[in-house]
# Entry
Amino acid sequence: MNRLKYCLLLLVGCVCFTSVHADSVFQKDQLLVDALKAKNIRLIVMRQAESLSNAQHIIDSKNDIKQFLTFQGIEQAADTAKNLFLERVSAIYTSPLFASLETSNIIAGALLILPFQIHSDPLLTMQNFGVDEGATFTHYQSLFPSSTAMYEGQVSGGESGTSVFNRTHQFLEKMLKLHESLTVLIITHAFNYCHIKMCLTGDFGQLPAESEFIIYDFNAP
# Structure
């Protein structure tokens, strides 16, 4: 596996990250897409609503008070629920972080989805950002030469992009085995949203805004 190593000298010392070449693991899984189509499973992938850390523009994967929704986040989740009302959601899978759980509960209440239809899955949790936990997103983004390198990369002490992609793919395969002929809502984080898009389309796309969602219906005309 080819690896490109970048080192950036920061005030606190030298922080190294590794970027994995896209040809290795970051690509569309056509077999998975075909299986979703065969089982008639529609996916709605959503970034959680605004948390306190989002409002402060910092990256923080710790499940503490900064993961609570802001008042704006609560409004975002309620507005998204209205937009999803006619989408016939039958199951919700969510990251276990507080903001995702709050988002899922608000939407589930509006869509009349029962507790047994809501599943918290650690495979959907936020990427750990290592030595850059608590840094601004702008700073973190500046450590990488491109958005692709950021999605694929890893800072010192953090989780690799390969790990996030692999566990995201593992979640999709697991979910696929449990359902048929229904619509599933997945509530997760910005990078996970992009990794799911890569797995299903071969493209990371753009970072989604808080509460933004995309519908994958492979049987649509």
About this structure: The longest helix spans residues 161-178. The domain at 26-216 is CATH 3.40.50.1240 (Rossmann fold). The first strand starts at residue 3 and ends at 10. Helices lie at 30-38, 52-55, 71-83, 98-111, 137-142, 147-152, 161-178, 190-201.
